[in-house]
Design goal:
about 210 residues; alpha/beta; UDP N-Acetylglucosamine Acyltransferase, domain 1; 4-stranded parallel β-sheet; 7 helices; antibiotic resistance
């Protein structure tokens, strides 16, 4: 056996709160890798509606999540649609209410606040009620502590916590991190990954390198 089918929406029998998101999310502006799951007691099916906020296709930004990520209940991704123009004296979005207030609005003042795509690498663990702001890149293997507010990019294999989230520690030394990023086991075919699970779970970097 080579693990669960990544196309199954609810991969754990009798435990419907966990779902593989690639099969559950159909939004054109969200990309999710195999085996990434969301855990919510109300069910994972409404992940896009509950957890990805202010995300409008006409803006053009994407939420990109890699493979083998674990996303806990209540995590939120704030997208660029939440941004307000900040170049004038007021940040109030007069233009969206119309009735003449839209006249003279310079779209470039709002576009200047667009921070691009939000990207999670592979094997990222996002804790309960973490908040990730627009345009953030979170590196492979990172851990986002519960209730963290992520306002800056997170390096690979870093653990961040707090508001604003700061690096508490790195999970491994620099050399091990470089080796893990070069191995990129999350991109392996599933049969190869399955054969080497003990090395992945047991932190046997030498065995992983031999398997490349």
């Amino acid at each position: 056996m080579d693990g669960p089918n990544p196309a199954i929406k609810h991969p754990i029998p009798m435990h419907p709160r966990v779902g593989f998101l690639k099969s559950l999310v159909t939004a054109e502006n969200i990309e999710i890798g195999d085996y990434t799951y969301y855990d919510d007691p109300d069910g994972p099916d409404r992940f896009a509606e509950k957890c990805v906020l202010h995300h409008y296709p006409f803006i053009g930004d994407k939420l990109i999540i890699g493979r083998f990520c674990a996303i806990a209940e209540g995590a939120r991704f704030i997208m660029n649609g939440a941004n307000h123009a900040m170049s004038g004296f007021s940040t109030y979005p007069f233009n969206i209410f119309g009735h003449g207030w839209e006249q003279g609005f310079d779209i470039k003042t709002w576009e200047a606040e667009n921070r691009g795509d939000t990207v999670l690498g592979n094997d990222v663990w996002v804790g309960m009620e973490a908040l990730i702001l627009p345009g953030i890149t979170i590196g492979d293997g990172a851990i986002i502590a519960a209730k963290s507010v992520v306002t800056h990019d997170v390096p690979p294999y870093a653990i961040v916590a707090g508001n604003p989230a700061k690096v508490v520690k790195t999970r491994f030394d620099r050399m091990t991190i470089r080796r893990l990023l070069a191995i990129a086991w999350w991109n392996w075919p599933v049969d190869k990954l399955t054969r080497n699970l003990d090395a992945i779970r047991g932190a046997d970097i030498d065995r992983l390198e031999r398997a490349v």
